[in-house]
């Protein structure tokens, strides 16, 4: 076991991938000498060379589009998009091309491109630097989307993403890059597309992922002081979603709160709530309640604290669920 | 570093002299009529120092083959158009008028080279050795592809304009990596096809930036057919597109796209240049889409008849036939044989298309992801149960399941 930050864990995961898979390489803006704006790729260019850690022209469609071509040739590109809000120039290549190659070729071709996107708010930045666009990609069949919430998952998930035959987007919770945790570099946590029950409980379930997982755990601790036993699930995978793990939990607790930073409307929370209403109708003691962002562009930093779900927002949602 | 207003003399030449005067800039703009041509509209061969030798090196059979392939794809096009009109295809994308640009460029490729087509490269597909009937699976609506791109190094058609130009550059960068990792890798280059309409898309720009930055072995082959559906070329660019090459620091060649010999020669030059490690080349083939953009539009609504007639006079097949006859390279028997063979091919395409039948949505469930996916599995299971419910309902009456 080693203790490291999430950023460091991804760095180590990338290092392990580059060392073990000669076809793998990283491409993106400012990832070489600078080591990425968040220093996630720090030291990798010096260790593996510019050929394996490639600074690209400043062009997101170009990054994704050329990565597709290189994957078609048998290489394993790992693309870094600098910030969530800058993925949109590459959106066309991701959704109309990358996601569809396997099905368009009747299963003959695949483009196992990995796209790393730092996402989410809470860093006091300016516009386009704090968005949570995961639902836009999750709606597109052909993509897989995972998001680590802790260092151990961060270390393993990036490697598992590269090993996957499908394109995988790894949304990295940027405000948790400096969150430390233990990493077991010997034993993988298993299937990256499975949810983890992080805290057992009997009265209600909170489902969260990425940056809100620590918030959900803190809310569950606070609820325990009020005598409520709250189970916390780290979803880990946004596409596919491990509905079975959520279902088992909801059947046990009878109450569900789903939390994410992205706007509630049309978001992942609605998908989970709807599925659980179908699967657990007779177990539910209350309607599934969603906690998330408002229907507005991510607000300016001076008011983002009112936008981001915090412990109190989750406790308020739990209160509403317990009121039934 | 384009051909700079002096025919072909600028190919491979150094950057134009530094200078900012309008005169210097104008001098480096390729003019409307300035392009490589080896065979004029009358079918008369012209000598040309840089590209002529590529044709001189060919045997008569190969030169006749250019005509044969152009005639084949034209006949194929006629048959596919008829199939669309008869309701057998959802849509067809005619290629008539552009046969020389496609047969010439496709024939210049080696088998290890890889082509990324748009959705109109039926002629290139022929030169790669595809069964043309496979192209119709997409247009019949039974597949989004229709062939294994790796068999003939001919990628799937791409309907999102210009997206494939980036894939082409990435593939070329992959070739570079393979050569570094395994020097025994066969050197290869990539052809990136796009049209004048697509040239306005940002992906074309980004692909040229990437290709130039990494010296990728890719040849950008723009078929400027003068119309982006109903919008004339002037809306895409004020000057020939080849002039953009200089902005990326790569060679540009403008070629008469209705002259199969010239297209073959400049493409061969460009592919050799790219394969030899010198980096990308932009070729602009000046040609004309004689028919509609697709069977869904009507050119009489947007372009003058006189323009079409003027371009028909530059027909690539008639030009080549005159040349072959004048040079004694082909006789009546040859042309008769081509016609008979093409009728046979058309019959094959027709029967193969009609035999394609429908599609099974289960195959679509199976190919969304390369690895197992629980949501797809769940929805497929639901679908199978739903389908089975109809069979159960009919079975007691002894009806067809």
Share of helix among residues of chain A?
25-40%
Secondary structure category of chain A? alpha/beta
What do we call the CATH topology of the largest domain in chain A? Rossmann fold
The oligomeric state of the chains shown is heterodimer
Largest interface: A-B, 50 and 46 residues
Short description:
Chain A is α/β, with parallel strands linked by helices.
Descriptive notes:
Chain A contains twelve helices and 14 strands. With 324 residues, chain A is an alpha/beta fold. Chain A folds into two domains: 2-183, Thiamin diphosphate (ThDP)-binding fold, Pyr/PP domains (Rossmann fold), CATH 3.40.50; 196-323, Rossmann fold (3-Layer(aba) Sandwich), CATH 3.40.50.920. Chain A has a seven-stranded mixed beta sheet with strand order 3-2-4-5-7-6-12, sandwiched between helices. Chain A has a five-stranded mixed beta sheet with strand order 9-11-10-13-14, with helices on both faces. Chain A has a two-stranded antiparallel ribbon with strand order 1-8. In chain A, α10 (268-279) links the parallel β13 and β14. In chain A, α8 crosses α12. The model of chain A has no long low-confidence stretch (mean pLDDT 98). By secondary structure, chain B is an alpha/beta fold. In chain B, 49% of the residues are buried. In chain B, α3 (60-85) packs across α5.
How is this fold's topology laid out?
The complex is a heterodimer of chains A (324) and B (401).
Chain A: E1 2-5, H1 6-20, E2 24-28, H2 44-48, E3 53-55, H3 60-72, E4 76-80, H4 91-97, H5 101-104, E5 114-119, H6 134-138, E6 144-146, H7 151-163, E7 168-173, E8 180-183, E9 196-199, E10 204-208, H8 213-225, E11 230-234, E12 237-239, H9 243-253, E13 256-263, H10 268-279, E14 289-293, H11 304-307, H12 311-322
Parallel strand pairs in A: 2-3, 2-4, 4-5, 5-7, 6-7, 10-11, 10-13, 13-14
Antiparallel strand pairs in A: 1-8, 6-12, 9-11
Helix pairs in contact in A: 1-7, 3-4, 8-12, 9-10
Chain B: H1 22-27, H2 52-56, H3 60-85, H4 99-107, E1 114-116, H5 122-128, H6 132-140, H7 149-152, H8 163-181, E2 190-195, H9 202-214, E3 218-224, E4 227-228, E5 231-232, H10 244-248, E6 252-256, H11 260-275, E7 281-286, H12 305-312, H13 316-326, H14 332-355, H15 361-367, H16 374-394
Parallel strand pairs in B: 1-2, 2-3, 3-7, 6-7
Antiparallel strand pairs in B: 4-5
Helix pairs in contact in B: 3-4, 3-5, 3-13, 3-14, 4-5, 4-11, 6-14, 8-9
Organism (chain A): Arthrobacter alpinus
Enzyme class (chain A): oxidoreductase
Pfam family, one (chain A): Transketolase_C
């Amino acid at each position: 076991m080693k203790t490291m930050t999430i950023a460091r864990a991804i760095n180590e995961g990338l290092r392990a991938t580059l060392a073990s898979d000669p076809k793998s390489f990283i491409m993106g803006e400012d990832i070489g000498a600078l080591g990425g704006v968040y220093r996630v790729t720090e030291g990798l260019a010096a260790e593996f060379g510019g050929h394996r850690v490639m600074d690209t022209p400043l062009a997101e469609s170009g990054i994704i589009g050329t990565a597709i071509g290189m994957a078609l040739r048998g290489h394993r590109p790992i693309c870094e998009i600098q910030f969530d809000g800058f993925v949109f120039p590459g959106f066309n290549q991701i959704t109309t091309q990358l996601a569809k190659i396997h099905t368009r070729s009747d299963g003959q071709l695949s483009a196992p491109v990995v796209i790393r996107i730092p996402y989410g708010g809470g860093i006091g930045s300016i516009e386009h630097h704090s968005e949570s666009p995961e639902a836009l990609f999750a709606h597109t069949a052909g993509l897989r989307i995972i998001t680590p919430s802790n260092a151990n998952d961060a270390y393993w998930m990036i490697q598992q993403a590269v090993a996957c035959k499908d394109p995988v987007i790894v949304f990295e919770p940027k405000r948790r890059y400096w969150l430390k945790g233990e990493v077991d570099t010997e034993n993988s946590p298993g299937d990256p597309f499975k949810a983890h029950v992080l805290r057992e409980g009997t009265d209600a379930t909170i489902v969260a992922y990425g940056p809100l997982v620590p918030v959900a755990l803190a809310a569950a601790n606070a609820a325990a002081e009020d005598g409520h036993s709250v189970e916390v699930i780290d979803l880990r995978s946004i596409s596919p979603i491990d509905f079975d793990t959520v279902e088992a939990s909801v059947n046990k607790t009878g109450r569900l709160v789903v939390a994410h930073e992205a706007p509630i409307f049309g978001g992942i929370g609605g998908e989970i709530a709807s599925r659980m209403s179908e699967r657990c109708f007779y177990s539910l003691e209350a309607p599934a309640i969603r906690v998330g962002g408002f229907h507005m562009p991510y607000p300016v930093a001076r008011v983002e604290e009112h936008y981001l779900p915090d412990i109190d927002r989750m406790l308020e949602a739990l209160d509403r669920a317990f009121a039934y | 570093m384009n051909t700079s207003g002096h025919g072909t003399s600028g190919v491979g030449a150094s950057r134009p002299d530094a200078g900012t005067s309008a005169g210097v800039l104008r001098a480096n703009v390729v003019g409307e009529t300035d392009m490589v041509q080896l065979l004029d509209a009358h079918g008369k061969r012209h000598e040309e120092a840089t590209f002529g030798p590529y044709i001189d090196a060919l045997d008569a059979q190969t030169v006749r083959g250019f005509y044969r392939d152009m005639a084949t794809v034209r006949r194929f096009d006629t048959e596919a158009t008829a199939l669309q009109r008869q309701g057998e295809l959802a849509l067809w994308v005619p290629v008539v008028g552009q046969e020389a640009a496609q047969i010439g460029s496709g024939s210049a490729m080696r088998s290890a080279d890889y082509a990324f087509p748009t959705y109109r490269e039926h002629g290139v597909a022929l030169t790669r050795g595809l069964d043309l009937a496979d192209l119709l699976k997409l247009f019949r609506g039974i597949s989004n592809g229709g062939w294994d791109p790796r068999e003939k190094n001919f990628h799937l058609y791409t309907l999102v304009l210009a997206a494939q130009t980036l894939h082409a550059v990435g593939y070329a960068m992959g070739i570079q990596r393979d050569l570094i990792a395994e020097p025994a890798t066969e050197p290869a280059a990539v052809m990136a096809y796009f049209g004048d309409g697509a040239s306005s898309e940002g992906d074309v720009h980004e692909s040229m930036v990437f290709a130039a930055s990494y010296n990728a072995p890719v040849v950008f082959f723009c078929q400027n057919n003068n119309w982006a559906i109903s919008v004339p070329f002037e809306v895409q660019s004020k000057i020939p597109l080849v002039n953009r090459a200089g902005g990326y620091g790569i060679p540009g060649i403008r070629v008469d796209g209705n002259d199969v010999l010239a297209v073959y020669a400049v493409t061969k030059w460009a592919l050799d240049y790219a394969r030899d490690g010198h980096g990308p080349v932009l070729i602009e083939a000046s040609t004309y889409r004689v028919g509609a953009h697709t069977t869904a539009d009507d050119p009489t609504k947007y372009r003058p008849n006189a323009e079409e007639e003027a371009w028909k006079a530059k027909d690539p097949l008639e030009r080549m036939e005159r040349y072959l006859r004048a040079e004694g390279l082909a006789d009546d028997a040859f042309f008769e044989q081509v016609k008979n063979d093409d009728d046979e091919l058309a019959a094959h395409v027709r029967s193969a298309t009609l035999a394609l039948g429908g599609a099974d949505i289960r195959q679509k469930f199976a190919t969304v992801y390369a690895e197992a996916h629980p949501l797809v599995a769940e929805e497929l299971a639901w679908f199978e149960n739903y389908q089975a419910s109809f069979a159960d309902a009919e079975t007691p009456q002894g009806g067809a399941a």
